[in-house]
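Loading example: each entry is read as two labelled lines plus one structure line.
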Amino acid sequence: MAGHRAAHTPGYRTMTVEARPPVGSPIDASASKDGPAAPDSRLESMPELAVLAAGVSKRFDDKDVVQDLTFQIGRGQIFGIVGPSGCGKTTTIRMMLGVLKPSGGELLLMGRPPHLFRRRDRQRLGYMPQLFVLFPELSVWENLNFAASIYGMGWFSRGKRLESALDIVELGDARSRPAGQLSGGMQRRLELACVLVHEPDVLFLDEPTAGIDPVLRAKFWDHFRELRDAGRTLIITTQYVTESEYCDRVAVMRDGRLIAIGSPEGVRRQAIGGEVIRVTGPDLDRRAVAAIRGVEGVIGVRRSADDALEVIAKDAGRAVPDLLEALAAADVEVTEVEEQRPSFDDVFVRLMEAAGGRGE
Amino acid sequence: MAAASSAMARPFRPIVHAANELGQQIVRISSFFLKELWAALRQPKLILSVVLGPFLILATFGIGYRGQTPQLQTTLLLPQDDPRLPEDPAAYRDLFSSIFVLDNVTRDRSAAEAALASGRTNVVVIVPERPEDHVLNGQQARFDILFNEIDPGQSAWVRYFATVAVQELNRRVLAGLVGNAQAPAEELGRVAGQMRGQADALEQDLRGGNAIAAGARVVALRQTLGAVRTAPSLSPIMAISGEADPLTPIEADLAAIESDLLAGRVNTPEQLQRAASLRTSARELEVQSQRLTQIPPDVLVAPFSIEARNTVPIEPTPIAFFVPAVIALLLQHIAISLTSLSMVRDRLLGAMDIYRVAPIGPLEVLLGKSLSYGLLLSIVAGLLVLLVTMLLNVPILGSPIWVAVSLGLLLFASLGMGFFLSQLASTETQAVQLAMLVLLCSIFFGGFFLALTTLWPPVRAISYVLPVTYGAIDLRDVMLRGIRPDWLMLAAPAFLGVVMYVLAARGVSREMATQ
């Protein structure tokens, strides 16, 4: 199922680790296969798409900011968009929000082009922009009230929701403080509370964890998972590559193009080319490399240290016994053979290098 | 049962939906209303500057304004060789009034010119040498007035008051001459009385049939008449009586009596009638002469005076006149500044992105903000009006309702203009600069200092796009004239406000639309 290339763009290699279903079909199963168990079952139980993008592009004047985006987002997922600064993440989000109209391609959010959204459609969206846009003179409570009001929530029915949103972001004690006097982290939490207050179906969070400490980031992701588990769809951009692992599905962008999309595990496999096995031993010479290359399912071998080799295999579980047998047959002493899980930082670097190598 | 209930409810569904939508719309509008209100109230300095600032400006203006008539230090430069004119300023003080304050009298021309150049004196009045020689030669004696002024308004004041002063001087000279002419008038009265006595005697001689005595009386009367004819005060009397020549009928009567006497007729009814007429004419001449001596010379030389009456209910003080326009100007400026800054600030904060995504429209944004600032500025306007009436004694002669209507329309147009200007500004600095430009325009073209009629009509068009123009006119009408403002002057700011709001709404719509 892997290795299918759905969208080829000149200059870049789009590494797609899932089969791309035809437009309009339910979310592909590959994501379910590679991703965590919970999202899989949820996707199957909720086949509707939250977002469908086919060949979407956006041009400002003479510059193509986003090109040929094709992806789908199922409801009840955390969909991460990762990429370096200026790669088109925010533009993609703004197109999905209806703030920008795509220059080409087809984009549907909840079955409707976002730029044609009516009030009723907009009530189902929540948006947390990249920059702090709360009103500094207003207190935490007043900012929340403002957010509730612009979404038309009744004055008398909103009290519990406001309290609940404050509880979620743990700002109950700061309700009377002016937003301008909050710390950066508290401001982001308040922004999140403002997004949550009207209980949107689809949340767009543009770099929600930027500039906040790791403890708070972890808390944010806990909230995001809770929201997902409650059936919400979250579309999150982030510059923290490691956060990709917390998503159900990840899209990696570079220079306005999608260079990889799929579950975090699928993207990792695609970036590395397979699964990684680390072989350690005092005498890993050419004999050892030759023996390893002879094992079925091994894609490649490279030296990672004086006493270690990094083996890329299609299926690490099946390859490890064969590797041990082959190395023993070649009379190579081995200290340790273990399956490795490269960090997403490595994955990201490899993806960027691969895309850059082709494109630059 | 449930199905039946559902079927019954179906016709009301659109109504329920519309009511729900209306409710949500009110909530959305309220969001901006409350946001702006709380944001303003959270800034005590802003509130202080908005409420107290304008009043302090008004109060300072009220205390500091001293009217427009300048006071000019004046030096009197006397001719070098005229000992008749003393150098004591006290001798001339009563000749200088209004704006000229005499503080120096000198015969040194260069010293006077130096004082003028250095600003120690504002005006130098140069007295002509031997003015009587000019007059006797049939020429006017000219006072030269030197002043050193670049302000055209002040220059106009100097010229005007110099003309007034010279007229006053001429009047005084003429009054002196007329006063001198009143002594001959007394003499004329005495001669006229003598003539009346002779006319009485002539009548008695005629009644007594004494033709010779009557003839002698006629001769004496002719001599007296000749003296009257040459009297210098006869001309003023002729002018006052309005008759061409009061002596002509006397001469005619004397000639007729004399002719009868020569014909030998005495004591005829016609002679007696003419003698009575002679007496009456002499008496009238006597009375006219006495009247001439009794009329003050000032009245004779300036027989006409004016008394101008202002028909407004009260004569407004300069403060009372300017205060309504100042209130209008301040409210317009605050409204424009607050609204334009509010929109630009939202844009710079990035809040427009939130508004674009949220289920709100541009009209809700504008309406919510307008209600908030409208309420805030209405309170400010009310406080200002209260303070100026209580502390500066500015009257409100008309209905307070029309004051409220005028202020409401002024605020409506000003808020609309603020929203419109916010579409032209991308930074807070630009918004402030635009507000200041409108303020500057308002001072020159809003009828604040200069009447609109003094402007060239095409330029006057600028006045008509400024809310302050209508605000000042309407408030002056209600507060100072005590009348309802003209309907056109009420409709104009309403129309201006609508136009501004439409333009602003178009701009915000474009801003919030998908790009």
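Residues 163 and 169 of chain B are 10 Å apart (CA to CA).
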